[in-house]
Each structure stands twice: as structure tokens, then as C-alpha cells.
């Protein structure tokens, strides 16, 4: 179907492939290197990544080459698209947005690169909303405005079993102050000022997850919201969180349960969980 405006994102948006296909969203893959092997993160089996991390095999994430964006934009131009809105993970977490900007300068159609200053399903929900506006024939300005409104109002809550993986990957941001806390202290994190930031410290994993749940319910309030539970190798706990959110959040348009992308998982580590609350 003809589109005046197309939406592009990167794989950290954590959107299922079936959904991006349905929305007509192009996804440029971040790469993951395990030891000497490098591949698009969508082709890295999660069990393989988890095993490598637990065995202390070096794991590195690599932003897409500008060429990957250039060819994506070029393919869209060949389909008759007149402009692209390219929506990406925070530039303080990844150089992905910089690669998109380099490619945008060489594109033969206008490409508007958007740094969301966030990660995960806060991007995912923004991309979904923007793609629906684009599909309905919305202008570039309206598509950008829709994405920005969603990610600006979204809350990203993150629980990690340990800060070690964030420290190794250099993505720890302001949460570096928590390094060295007692092992029984479980950090709750959020996105603020485009980086990972401490939110709270709670003794014990169960208490920490209950605290994250309470914060999510409070942030949702009585507004109509979309809610996602994200996990990395922690499906059972994620399902329990989702059940509690279903009981605790009164006005939810869409619930989603998703495993985070391997690139995010490489930094938060096995056992990580997240909740995204996104007012519609």
C-alpha cells in the first residue's frame, strides 16, 4: 500500500516482528558480538546469549552501520515513500541514532531522525502510534509529534538482579552510584535525562518487584494507558507481574508481554524485568 511517510526504528524497540510487519515499520538491527561471533541481534538465540553471559564470555553490542540505514531509506524511496521518520534508542545509550543521521544526510528523500532519549517499549509504543498516523496519511510533522508525545509521557521501570552487566557495557549512567551496594540490595532503575538512573533500592528481589509494581500502578493512575512487561530470561516472573498489573491498573487499552531485544539483554543481564507505562 502506498505511504507518503514511512516509519523506521531499531531493534531495541522490542516490537514483535509480526507487529512491525503489520504496521509496515522497517527495523534496522543492532548487532551483538559473542566472543568472536557477530550477527544481527534477531539472529542471536537468547539461550546462547544467556549461557555466554553466565560463562563470562565477552559480549558486546554494536550499533548498525550507517549503510544499513542508507539502504533501508533507499528501499523505501524506491517504493514511492516521500519521507521517513526514523525513531531510535537514546543517543546516550547507543550510537545508533548517530548512524541514522549520517545515512539521512545521504538519502534522496527527507529523513527525520528522532532521538527518543529512552529505550525498550517506550520506543515501541511511540513507533506503533506514529506508524498508525503514517498509515492514515498523516504528515511528517504529525507523525513526529505523535511519536514524541508517546515517548515523552512514557515511564520505563527496570529491575536488574545485578548492576554488573550494565557496568561492563558502560551503560550504567547515573546508576553508577549504586555499584558496590550489598548483594541483598536490589536496584530499581528508570530512564531520566536520556540515561539509566537510580529510582530506588530495596532489600530482596520479591520486595523490589513489588515496589516496581506499586510505582507502575501509581504512574498509570486512572488514565488510559498501554502497559508492557519486558523480561530477559525471566518469563515466569514477567507473567506474574503481568497478572498483578491486570488487577491493579484500571484503564488499560493494551497489555503486552515481550522479551527484550538481545542488545538490551546483553546490558541488563539475565533475570532483568521491566514495566513500561505509556499514556495513550
Structural topology:
Layout (H helix, E strand, L loop, with lengths): L4 E6 L6 H7 L2 E3 L2 E4 L2 E4 L5 H9 L4 E4 L3 H13 L4 E6 L7 H11 L4 E5 L5 H15 L4 H14 L1 E5 L4 H6 L15 E8 L2 E9 L1 H16 L4 E8 L2 H14 L3 E8 L2 H7 L3 E8 L1
Parallel strand pairs: 1-2, 1-6, 6-7, 11-12
Antiparallel strand pairs: 3-4, 3-5, 8-9, 8-13, 9-10, 11-13
Helix pairs in contact: 3-4, 5-6, 8-9
Describe what you observe in this structure.
The chain has helices at about 15-25, 45-55, 65-80, 95-105, 120-135, 140-155, 165-170, 205-220, 235-250, 260-270, and strands at about 5-10, 25-30, 30-35, 35-40, 60, 85-90, 110-115, 155-160, 185-190, 195-205, 225-230, 250-260, 270-280. It is of the alpha/beta class and about 280 residues long. A hairpin with a 2-residue loop joins strand 9 and strand 10. Helix 5 packs antiparallel against helix 6 (about 140-155) and helix 8 runs parallel beside helix 9 (about 235-250).
Q: How do the helices and strands follow one another from N- to C-terminus? A: EHEEEHEHEHEHHEHEEHEHEHE
Structural class: alpha/beta
Compute the number of strand runs.
13
What is the molecular shape? Answer: globular
Low-confidence stretches: 177-182
- Gap from first CA to last CA: 26 Å
Return Rg in Å. 18 Å
Question: If strands are numbered along the chain, what order do they take across the biggest sheet?
Answer: 10-9-8-13-11-12
Oligomer: single chain
Q: Average pLDDT across residues?
A: 92
Biggest sheet, open or closed, and with what strands and sense?
6 strands, mixed
| Percent helix | 40-55%
Amino acid at each position: 500500500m502506498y505511504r507518503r511517510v514511512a516509519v523506521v526504528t531499531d531493534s531495541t524497540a522490542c516490537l514483535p516482528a509480526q507487529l512491525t510487519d503489520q504496521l509496515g515499520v522497517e527495523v534496522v538491527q543492532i548487532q551483538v558480538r559473542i566472543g568472536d561471533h557477530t550477527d544481527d541481534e534477531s539472529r542471536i538465540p537468547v539461550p546462547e546469549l544467556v549461557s555466554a553471559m553466565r560463562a563470562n564470555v565477552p559480549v558486546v553490542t554494536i550499533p548498525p552501520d550507517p549503510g544499513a540505514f542508507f539502504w533501508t531509506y533507499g528501499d523505501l524511496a524506491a517504493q514511492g515513500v516521500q519521507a521517513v521518520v526514523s525513531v531510535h534508542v537514546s543517543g546516550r545509550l547507543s550510537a545508533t541514532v548517530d548512524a541514522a543521521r549520517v545515512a539521512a544526510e545521504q538519502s534522496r528523500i527527507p529523513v527525520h531522525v528522532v532521538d527518543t532519549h529512552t529505550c525498550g517499549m517506550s520506543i515501541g509504543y511511540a513507533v506503533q502510534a506514529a506508524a498508525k498516523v503514517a498509515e492514515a496519511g498523516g504528515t511528517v510533522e504529525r507523525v513526529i509529534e505523535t511519536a514524541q508525545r508517546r515517548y515523552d509521557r512514557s515511564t520505563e521501570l527496570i529491575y536488574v538482579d545485578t548492576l554488573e552487566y550494565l557496568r561492563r557495557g558502560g551503560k550504567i549512567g547515573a546508576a553508577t552510584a549504586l555499584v558496590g551496594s550489598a548483594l541483598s540490595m536490589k536496584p530499581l532503575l528508570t530512564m531520566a535525562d536520556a540515561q539509566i538512573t537510580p529510582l530506588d533500592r530495596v532489600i530482596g528481589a520479591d520486595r523490589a518487584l513489588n515496589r516496581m509494581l506499586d510505582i507502575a500502578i501509581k504512574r498509570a493512575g486512572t488514565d488510559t494507558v498501554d502497559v508492557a512487561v519486558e523480561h530477559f530470561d525471566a518469563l515466569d516472573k514477567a507473567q506474574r507481574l503481568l497478572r498483578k498489573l491486570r488487577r491493579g491498573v484500571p484503564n488499560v487499552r493494551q497489555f503486552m508481554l515481550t522479551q527484550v531485544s538481545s542488545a538490551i539483554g546483553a546490558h541488563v543481564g539475565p533475570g532483568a524485568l521491566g514495566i513500561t507505562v505509556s499514556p495513550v
